[in-house]
Write a structure and sequence with these properties.
Distance between the termini: 62 Å
Radius of gyration: 27 Å
Structural class: mainly alpha
Number of helices: 10
Order of helices and strands: HHHHHHHHHH
Number of strands: 0
Shape: elongated
């Protein structure tokens, strides 16, 4: 019996991949990793079809670190072959967007910002990427966010303690003064709450303006 030719074997392997369900992400990962060397020897279109499915599977199963590593190699392939549109979608934009999202999930905010900006240079109208850029910029202010979270914890602790004192001590022994005590609670807690909310809103506004400035600059440049 004559062995199958390399072309026939690779085509058979590609057809086997086509039988996988679109959402069989773990099967797609397993298929790619078991046949990686053969996949790279396929025709470019066939190899890209399987590789895009593999990248999508990594992203959908939250393997963001591996996705970021593999997608970098894939982007280099797209650039080398001058491919931006594949399988009826802007594949270059899609991968860049997913990289920005993946790095955000990995809390690598600088890399998320970089990928989001690179994509917005290509297509400034992408609302989904604008959102990622906003969230990544906001999350990059780690010290401020930690201070806000700590402030809210202190706020809730103080509020709970004062209300507990009001219920157990003031109402039991100083009932005539419970309104004054409630006013004291409001005097302490309301300014603290407004300060924390104001700081959070200020950070949001600062991040939003950074995104707007970047987009305005890009529109002028384009």
């Amino acid at each position: 019996m004559n062995p199958l030719s390399s072309h026939t074997r690779l085509r058979s392997l590609y057809n086997k991949y086509l039988y996988l369900d679109d959402h069989a992400y773990y099967d797609k990962k397993r298929f790619f990793e078991q046949n990686e060397s053969d996949i790279y020897n396929m025709k470019l279109a066939d190899a890209m079809w399987i590789e895009t499915g593999y990248l999508q599977a990594l992203f959908m199963t939250n393997e963001y670190g591996k996705f970021c590593h593999r997608s970098q190699v894939f982007l280099e392939k797209l650039i080398f072959h001058n491919i931006s549109y594949f399988n009826e979608e802007q594949i270059f934009e899609k991968i860049l967007h997913q990289r920005a999202a993946a790095y955000y999930q990995l809390r690598a905010y600088d890399k998320s910002i970089h990928n989001a900006k690179e994509l917005l240079k290509i297509n400034p109208e992408r609302k989904d990427t604008k959102k990622i850029l906003f969230y990544a910029i906001r999350s990059s202010h780690k010290k401020t966010l930690k201070a806000i979270k700590a402030g809210f914890m202190v706020f809730f602790l103080i509020s709970a303690m004062l209300l507990l004192v009001h219920q157990i001590i003031v109402l039991s022994f100083y009932a005539a003064h419970h309104l004054e005590f409630l006013q004291l609670i409001c005097f302490i807690c309301i300014p603290m709450f407004l300060l924390l909310i104001g700081t959070k809103l200020g950070l949001d506004l600062k991040s939003y303006l950074q995104v707007k400035r970047f987009l305005k600059h890009k529109k002028v440049s384009i």
